[in-house]
Amino acid sequence: MAVTRREALLSLAVAPLLGSLPAVRPSGRPAASLKQSASRWCYRSIPLPDLCKAGKAMGLAGIDLLAADDWPIVRDQGLVCSMGYAAMRDDFIPRGFNDPANHDLLVGELERALPLAQQHGVPNLIAMFGNRQGRSDAQATDACVMGLKRIAPAAERYGVTICVELLNSKVDHKDYQGDRTAFGAAIIEAVGSPRVKLLYDIYHMQIMEGDVIRTIRQHASHIGHFHTGGVPGRHELDDTQELNYRAIARAIAETGFSGYVAHEFVPTREPLRSLKEAVEVCSV
Question: CA-to-CA distance for 53 and 15, rounded, in angstroms?
Answer without folding.
Answer: 38
